[in-house]
Amino acid sequence: MSNKRRLIIAAVLVVATIVIAVGVAIVAGVFFLRSSGDTVAIGSATKVGVPNGPATTKSIGPAGGSIASTDGRIVVEVPPNAVPGPLNFSIQPITNLAHGGVGSAYRLEPGGHKFAPPIKVSFKFDAQDLKGYSPEALAIAYQDPTGVWQTFRTVNIDQASKTLTVATAHFTDLSVWTIRLSPEKAMLHVGETQLIALEGCIEKDGWGSKLKTLLGTQTCQFFMPQENSWSVNVGTITMVPGAALYTAPAKKPSPNVATVRLVFRIRGALQKDVRSCEITIVDRGYRASGSDGPTSYSGTICSLDKEFTVTGHNGPLTYLFTFSPSGDGRKGTGSLVGSYSGGTWTGGGPYKIERFDSDSPRILWQVGTTISGKPGTTSGGGIATINLVPLNPDEKCKQ
Length: 399
Hints:
The protein has 399 residues and is mainly beta. It contains three helices and 29 strands.
C-alpha cells in the first residue's frame, strides 16, 4: 500500500471519528436535557445556590406533619406513611440562580429519598413577587442533578391564600419562577445595541426542541401562539429567536429612557401580561477642546447630565473646572480651583450648552474669578467657551 493511500485512509478515519464524537455528544445532550413526565426544562444548567439564611430543622415520623421556613414563605406538608420512621427534615434558604427565579430559592432535605405518597410543597407569594404580574405567570421549579431547572407542569394556584402548591416525591433545590426580560434595566450610549432575552422559557417536548435547547436556539413556548408582541417607544427592535435586539437612537432623546415592552398571554391564562426593560440612553461622550486667549481646555466628558470636569491650561498653570448640570444637562453651575506659587485662583458661575442637539455643542460659561495671594486680591470675569467634540463610536468613554 502506498504512503499516499495510507494518508488518505488515515484522514478519512480521523474525520469519521470526529463526526461520530459530535453525534454522540448531541444525542447525549438530548437525553441529558430530558425531563420527567410532570416537569419540563426552563433553560440551560446553572450553578448551585449557596446558603443565605438560617435553616429550619424538624423531625417528622410516620404520622406526618409539616415544617416551614424561618421566613414563612415555604411550607412542606408530609402526609401519613410517607416515611417509615422519624426523619429529620430541613429547609435552607439559598441564593436563587434559576432562570426567572423569584426571591430566595430553598434547599429541602433529606435528599435522595423517594416519598410515597408524595409530599406537598407550598410557596406563598405577595405583591412584591408579582410586580404587577398575574398569578398565572408564577410557577415552581426544581434543580435536577445535572443543574438544569425543571418546572412542574401541575401547579395549584390558590389566589385566595396566595400560594403555589406542587406534589413531589423527592427533595432538591426549589424556587418560584416567572418569565421575565433580561436585563430589566440597562444603560446604553447612543447607537449601541442590547440583546433583551426571555428568562424562564419552557422548552417544547420532543427531540428537536431538546436539540435546539442544547444548541442555544430554543424559543419560548410559554405563550399562546400569536399572542405576544414587542414594542419600544424610543429606538428600534429587531426580532431574534427567543429575544429582541434593541438599538438606541443615534442622538440622545429627551427624556432619555426607552421602555421595551413584551405583551403576551400565558397558556391557560385569561388575561394578558406585560414585561418591560428600561434602557437609559446617554451620549457616547465628548472631548473638551478650544481656548480663550492663553487658556486652553482638555478632558473627556462621558455624559452632560452628570457632574463632569474639564482641565484648563495656561502656560505652566493648570486649573480644574467642575460642572454640575441641572435637569437634562443643558445648563448648570461651574466652579474652578487652581493654585500658583504664592496664591490661589477660584471662581464659578452659571453655564449653558449651546447647540445641544447638534454634532458640535459647546459650553458657554459665565465665570467670575478671584485671585488671592501676593501681591494682593484681584477679581475678574468673562465668558469661557469650551468646544465639545463627540467621541468616535468605537471609543470607550473613561472620565
